[in-house]
Amino acid sequence: MLAPADDVMAWGESFDHLLKCKTGQLVFEDFLRTEYSEENLLFWLACEKYKKITRAREMTVAAKRIYTEFVQVGATRQINIDCVTREEISENISQPGPNCFDRAQKLIYGLMENDCYPRFLKSEIYQALLEQDEQQ
């Protein structure tokens, strides 16, 4: 995957730079897939999209989809969150507000930033992109 050298360098400066870049998201997702943890990024992105929804009906449908895909026990892409947070979402899912996933999203963000991101920076995937840019 080709990425502009400035972008690739910025990804190494901060996790936020990585997440703000569409190509960065895709590269990070590829890396997470090698660790069997891409559900973390997919959940985080789904939450970002969810926060932009303004219509109540659309919000309810999206919240239920996020819940069944990522939050409920046994979900196809179940994220690793504490039972209190999971329970809180379960209780609010019938009447979801714009912030109903905030706590879980913060937990997953922290997990990715402190756990996955440092490994990503050392990964062959990222190192290869850095080398590719140095050779140009």
Describe the 3D structure.
This protein is mainly alpha-helical. It is about 75% helix and about 0% strand. The chain has eight helices and no strands. Helix 3 packs antiparallel against helix 4, helix 4 packs antiparallel against helix 5 and helix 4 packs across helix 7. It is elongated, with a radius of gyration of 16 Å. The model has no long low-confidence stretch (mean pLDDT about 95).
Structural class: mainly alpha
Give the tally of β-strands.
0
Unreliably modeled segments: none
Average pLDDT number: 94
Strand content: under 5%
Task: Give the H and E element order.
Answer: HHHHHHHH
The proportion of residues forming helix, as a percent range, comes to over 70%
Biggest sheet layout:
none
Describe the structure concisely.
This protein is mainly alpha-helical.
List the defining traits of the structure above.
136 residues, 74% helix, mainly alpha
